[in-house]
């Protein structure tokens, strides 16, 4: 399988950091090899590797192609900060399933922290693996304030996801392991559409992956 590398385009070259240089050495690239790179902003660069050092690499650009554009209808997901191994898995799957924005929110019952830098590295590696050229944005959401079509997952909801309105841009809100607090539930019920995924209690990453996967398939984002 051809490899995709991430770098910054400048002055007719793509510059790669230490992580990418290490990847190149692992797959036994050498100077003069033709490689493909992306800047994470939707562009593909066909390049000739000029230099490969321990902490950096550079390649001459011979072809530029815009592979992906910013979508007019976005799929966003608000997820709790959970255990890192589970959160990492969720990030990977969101990238693969075409999510455009990933927001981390510290709910009242959240018990963990997360580094945005670590999350962005996971986004990069997952995007390279599935050959995604436009990387999803990753950030913190400080307040549960929304507008537009927002869907909140709640086991006690009377409406099922299968019956929800999926028109336009959609934001999916997924609660923490301990569930929403009463204050959060009241706020979300007043500003979002509450839906259920069925009768089973799902882990937060399972609920998020199932929901965004269903929406992505319906909206042909995969």
TrEMBL record:
Superkingdom of the organism of origin: Bacteria
| One record GO biological process | rRNA base methylation
- Describe the location of the Ribosomal RNA small subunit methyltransferase E methyltransferase domain by residue ranges: 70-215
Q: Name one Pfam family in it.
A: PUA_4
Q: SUPFAM superfamilies annotated for this entry? A: alpha/beta knot (SSF75217), PUA domain-like (SSF88697)
Q: Where is the protein situated, by its record's location annotation?
A: Cytoplasm
Q: Might you report a single GO cellular component term?
A: cytoplasm
Record-listed E.C. numbers? 2.1.1.193
- Family, similarity comment: Belongs to the RNA methyltransferase RsmE family.
Q: What is this protein called?
A: Ribosomal RNA small subunit methyltransferase E
What is the organism of origin for this protein? Thermotoga maritima (strain ATCC 43589 / DSM 3109 / JCM 10099 / NBRC 100826 / MSB8)
Top-level taxonomy: Bacteria, Thermotogati, Thermotogota, Thermotogae, Thermotogales
């Amino acid at each position: 399988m051809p490899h995709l590398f991430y770098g910054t385009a400048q002055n007719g070259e793509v510059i790669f950091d230490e992580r990418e240089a290490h990847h190149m050495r692992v797959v036994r690239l050498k100077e003069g090899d033709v490689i493909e790179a992306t800047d994470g902003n939707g562009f593909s660069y066909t390049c000739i590797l000029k230099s490969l050092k321990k902490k950096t690499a550079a390649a001459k650009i011979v072809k530029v192609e815009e592979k992906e554009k910013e979508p007019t209808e976005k799929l966003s997901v608000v997820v709790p900060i959970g255990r890192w191994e589970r959160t990492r898995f969720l990030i990977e799957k969101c990238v693969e399933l075409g999510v455009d924005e990933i927001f981390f929110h510290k709910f009242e019952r959240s018990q963990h922290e997360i580094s945005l830098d670590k999350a962005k590295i996971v986004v990069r590696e997952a995007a390279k693996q599935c050959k995604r050229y436009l990387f999803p944005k990753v950030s913190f959401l400080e307040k549960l304030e929304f507008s537009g079509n927002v869907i909140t997952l709640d086991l006690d909801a009377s409406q099922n996801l299968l019956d929800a309105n999926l028109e336009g841009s959609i934001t999916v809100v997924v609660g923490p392991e301990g569930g929403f607090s009463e204050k959060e539930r009241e706020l979300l019920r007043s500003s979002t559409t509450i839906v259920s995924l069925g009768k089973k209690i799902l882990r937060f990453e399972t609920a998020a992956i199932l929901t965004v996967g269903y929406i992505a398939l319906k909206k042909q984002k995969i």
